[in-house]
Design goal:
The complex is a heterodimer of chains A (262) and B (401).
Chain A lengths: L2 E12 L2 E12 L3 E5 L6 H8 L7 E6 L7 E2 L5 H6 L2 E3 L12 H8 L8 H6 L2 H20 L15 H13 L5 E5 L7 H18 L2 E5 L3 H7 L2 E6 L2 E6 L1 H6 L1 H8 L6
Parallel strand pairs in A: 3-8, 3-9, 6-7, 7-8
Antiparallel strand pairs in A: 1-2, 1-4, 4-5, 9-10
Helix pairs in contact in A: 3-5, 3-6, 5-6
Chain B lengths: L4 H4 L1 E4 L4 E4 L1 H40 L6 H5 L6 H21 L2 H26 L7 H19 L3 H23 L4 H21 L1 H4 L20 H27 L2 H11 L1 H6 L4 H27 L9 H14 L4 H17 L7 H15 L15 H11 L1
Antiparallel strand pairs in B: 1-2
Helix pairs in contact in B: 5-10, 5-13, 5-14, 5-15, 6-7, 6-8, 6-13, 7-13, 10-13, 11-13, 14-15
Classes of the chains: A alpha/beta (262), B mainly alpha (401).
Chain lengths: 262, 401
Amino acid sequence: MERILDVTRLSMDFGGLRAVNAVDLTIGKGEIVALIGPNGAGKTTFFNCITGIYTPTEGDIHIQLPGSPRLRLNGMKPNRVTEKGLARTFQNVRLFPSMTTLENVMIGCHCRTRAGVLGAVLRGAGTRREEDGMVEKAYGLLQRVGLEKSWNEQAKNLPYGAQRRLEIARALATSPFLLLLDEPAAGMNPQETMALKDLVRRLRREFDLTVLLIEHDMKMVMSISDRVVVMEYGKKIAEGTPAQVSADPQVIKAYLGEECDA
Amino acid sequence: MVLTFPLLVIRVNTTEKIVTWRWENLLYMGLGSFAVSLVWPMLIARSRAGRTRNEPQRKEESAPPQKGLARWLKPGAIDSRAVLALKVLALFAALIYPLVASIYQVNIMASALIYVGLGLGLNIVVGMAGLLNLGYAAFYAVGAYTYALLNHHFGLGFWTVLPLGGVLAALFGIILAMPVLRLRGDYLAIVTLGFGEILRLVLENWNAFSFGPSGISQIERPGLFGMAFTVASATTYIYYILLGVIAITIFVTARLQNSRIGRALVALREDEIACQAMGIDKTAVKLTAFALGATWAGFMGVIFAAKTTFINPASFTFLESAMILSIVVLGGMGSVTGVVIAAFILQLLPEYLRFLADYRMLLFGLTMVLMMIFRPQGLISTENRRTAYPMMDKILAAGNK
C-alpha cells in the first residue's frame, strides 16, 4: 500500500507536560485508521499537531502524494495544511452558527477558489461562474450527507447529529485526500452512530479518501476501522487490526486497569 | 437620589458667593424615579413576553407548508417590490432635497451623510469581520489631513486627493492591523483605541507637520472643471458628491457581503479556529478587513476636509470613534440599511433637538440604554437574513422537474 501520511517520533510539550510522546504513525492510501485511548491520552493534541494548530516540539510530519514530492508539514499554518489536502472536523462542533448550511459548506470551498475584493465588487463572468460552481459543489455535498433539505437553515438551528454531518460536508468541500474526524460519533445515539459509520465508508469510496478518526464508541471503532492505534499518556501503546488490539493485554490494562493478585 | 443631591439641589453662585438650595428638585427627582420604577418592570416583562411569543412562530417557519398568514410572518416575506419602491422613493427624496430645503438643512444632511459613509466603512470591520475597532476616527483623520496637507503645500485638487486619501488610509489600516493580528475582542479594542489616540496626539503636537491644535484652514472646496462656486452652491455640490460616494459604498458593501471574501469575513467573526481549518488565511482576511474599512474612512475624511474647509485634531477624538461605533451597533451589526438609518438618527436627532439643548445628551444616553435592553441586536437584525443564490434556484428548479 502507498503511504500517504508519515509521522515520525512526534512529540508535543506544553510547558513541563509532554502531551504527545514520540508517536510514530503511518497511514496508507484508502485506509480507515482509528485512534483510541482514554481521556487525556493526547489524541486531539496529536490531531492538532498534524493540522497545524500546534507546532510540534519534536518529530516530523510528512505527506506523500502519488506523483508529487514528499512534503513536510511541521510549522505550516492550518490554512496551508488544509490547502495541501488535509481536512478535519472538531471534537466540539465548530460550525459558523449564524451562516446557513449551504454557506458553511461554501466556506470550505474558499481555499479552492480565487475571487478577491475586486472580483466581488465588479462580479464579472469569471467570479459569477466560480460562485455558481461553489454553490453547486456545496449543494452536492449536502446531498451526500443528507442535508440538502435544510440548505437554507442556519447551522445553529440544526439538530446535533445534522451539525456533525454538516461539519463533515464542510471538510469535504476543501477537496481533501485525508479526512481527520475528531470524535464524529460523540453524543449520537446508536442508530445515528451506525448511519454515520455507513456514511464514512461511503464517502471514502466516493471521494477516494483516507480517514483518520478519533473515537470513543468501541462498536463504531471495531466495525469501521482497518487499523486501530491506541494511545495512553501521550504514548502509542498498541497498533493493529481491531481484533488484535482488543486482545492486547496493555490495551486492556489501559482501559480497565490492572488485575489485582491479592 | 443621594448621588444626585449635590448636583441638583445645591447650586453655588460663585459671583455673588451665595448657595441656593433648590429643594423642589428633590421632589421632581423622587417622582421621576418612582415613575421609572413603576414602568421599568412592566417594560422588561413585555420584552420577555415578546421573546417567548416569538419562539413558537419560529418553529412554524421551519415547517414546510406555509399558507396565508404564516407566510407573511416569515422574515423576508415582505414584498420585494414594496422594498424596491421604498428605495426608489428614498433615492428620489435624496436627489431633490437640496432643491426644496434651505442651505442650512442641506449642510446638516451632508454631515449626516458623512457619518453614513463612516458607519458603512466601520460596518465592514466590526459588523462583518467582528473586529472591534475603537480607533476608527484615526483613519478618518488620515483622509482629512491627506487632503488638507497636500492642498496646502502642493495645491492638489479634491478629485486628485480623494483616491489618494483612501489608499493612504488603507495603508494605515494595514499598519495598524500588522501588530494586532493575534489579538481579538477586548484586547484588540484597547490597541485600536490606543492607535487612534496616538495618531491624534501626533497631529496635535507635531506642529511642523500638522500645524498642531490650530489646525489647517482655507482648504479648497471641490471644483467642477474650474468653475467657481458660491458657498451655497458648493454645499449643494458637496451634498451630491457625498450622495454619489454613499451610493458606491452601499453598492460595494452589498456586493462584498455576498461574495467569497464577505463570507470569509463572517466566518472569521463566527469561529477563528474553524475558519483557519477550512483553509482561510486568517492574516490575509484580517488585513483585508482593516484596509477596506479604513479606505472608506479615508474617503470620508477627504470629503469632510473639503466640506468644512478647516480641520484640526479636535475633530478626530475618541468621541468620534465612539459615535461611529454606536451607529454600527444601533443599526445592527452587518446590516447596511440599519447603519444608514442609525446614522441619520444619531446625527439628525441631536441637531433637531437643539431646543432641548441641555438634555439632548441625556436623551441620547437614554436611547442607547433602552436600545441595549430591548433590542440588543440593533434596529435591523441580520440574524435571519438569507442571501439569494441564483444557482440554488436553478438547482432546485432542475430537481423539481
